[in-house]
Amino acid sequence: MRLRNVFTAFTIAALALSAVTLWTDVTGTGNAATVPGPFARYTRDLGGEEPSPTLGMAGQAAPPLLAPAPVSVSVQGFYAWALLDRKTGTMTGSTNAAAATNTTESMIKVWITADYLRRFTAAGPDQERLDELSRMIRDSDDAAAQDIYEADGDNAVVQRMVSVCGLTETSVVDGWWSRTQISARDAVRLGACLTDGRAAGPKWTSWVLGEMRQVRGEGRFGVVEALPTEVANRIPIKNGWTVVGDEWHVNCMAVVDRYVLAVLTRYPEELGLDYGAGICRSVTSQLRPRS
């Protein structure tokens, strides 16, 4: 398994997925602040599969599970978050969502899987390889991730993620898939890339998202814990969690109906994994629409 990081939150909007936007950095002092931001829209629809609305009573569309809102979390360390509306392209998040990065840790395993499947022959991999790919996502199997990473070109795997998904704040760390540096803004772009078919291609996208819905064990935490039980099981997620030096690196990524949410955290080791999971839960809870 691999882990993630912490920061102070504000609400902002990016003008385009590839635009250079001014974001104000806030150091991780543990103090919290909230600044409502303008919610600008991107100039184009993201395309891809139409996000399915949650259905309420009698087939009526239920209120959205998430919506842009101010977020304030007091953290001992660093955190950043971003929320992307896959339908409109509107992005909101912390003021450091583009400027600050964290190691991806296990969150990148969904890309390693999708990239491998997209590039494979039309017949697809055999069952043994599919089982390995499934373990990589469901159980966050590090050995499986390393095997596929090496088989598919090492650094080239991450370089393709940057180019295919249009990432702008992601950087390769030679020979280390888990140490890839990514911003919260790029993390939600990765989530959109997975859902719209660019990552895995038309044949394998549903399979990858299905595996993300079945993440289990130690890796099932964060965003899904802040959602109603009846819908949490259908939410595709991939988290990352590892102790690096004397810090936990904890990341959460989830596709919640039309939205992709990512939270990146980093904080002292003695606070434990649940501290980072709690940051993900808190951000998610604050983005839940109030009735």
Automatic annotation (TrEMBL):
Signal peptide bounds? 1-32
UniProt keywords (A-Z) are:
Signal
Would you say which domain of life the source belongs to? Bacteria
Name of the featured protein: Serine hydrolase
Source organism (scientific name): Planosporangium mesophilum
